[in-house]
Please model this.
Amino acid sequence: MKRSLKLLLSWLAVLFGLSLSVLGFGLLSVLPLASSFSPPHPKTWLNGLTLLVFGAVPFLASVVAFRNRKLASSLCFVAAPLVSVMVWLTEIELADVIFYHGYPRDQYTPAASAAITFVPLLLLGYFWSIAHRYDWPLMPLRITLPTWTRAVLTVTAGLLFFVLVCGMSVRVASIGELPGDCGGPPPFSKPYPDHAVFTARVINVDRITGAMAIVQERFGGLPWWNKVVFLKFIDRKGTYFIDGRFEEGIVTRWVVPVLDLKCSGSCPIEAAGVELRLFRDNHWDGVRIIGRALQSTGRGWVPTSGATVIVEGPNGSVTTAADRSGIYDLRGLPEGHYTIHVPNPGLHGTCRDFREGTLKSGDVWGCDLLVNSTE
Model:
């Protein structure tokens, strides 16, 4: 076999090993090892250790192979059965991630995930063993270049590897169930714990990473350095009001945030009049009741101005009218429970506050009211 072909195969083996490493580190980066909801389960730490070995071994083998193919093969031979058994026992859904084609997830057995780790590592080990046994030429490691050029190339390669790991993390975190009918959340004026609230412009939507968006106006929960975010359950470009829960992985929480929008107040910017008003003007005394009056146009429900809205509370009834944006907004109301309705309701023209405690000063509540066209 010609020297050039042997060198080409060796370089392809290095790239294959680095690809396995990207997969392993990408899966590791989405594990909730530092979850703010609750301390990680011991199984989560075991999964993390397994994926750390799966990511580190092919990386080390690819680097070591430049000078010691025997050691590179030994690393792969030792790791192959160890990692595959741990993947099997901990039931890491490796096969589901790789062969994901949409909801519902394909239900692969743990053995399939174990095989995905065992076979590639074993083949990589056999390749470096053959290269060592038959004394294949070593791949050139040192290139006659200025020191600063080599430093730039090294940093560039490291950044490229990091970007690939981040991309794999986003891909894995973007896989999830389709949202169910969770019902509309009540108005709110500050982010829920572990949520971020902001407006963003979605610039790209694809099946691999979901929706990529550029952050515009920030209201809380999102670090200042995060300019680009990835959003689950958005399928078209446009500008949105975002109320999302962070995925808890290290990369998907702090580096390239992935936000789950299921059962949240996220919506297109044109439907976020109530939320934007609350976050831009979030100081008031007493209870605040706010929401929208909507009317059917044959193409859906749209805000309607001038609709009469009746708010019943501990001190009786208060009547108001929706403004030009279809929003009704009452402030300074006394503490207690409230009911909101319109004189001529549509399908959902009444809502009640069923919470255990009463609304207190500074609280906000409300709902969308559907108004019949004769209102």
Summary: Residues 226 and 256 are 7 Å apart (CA to CA).
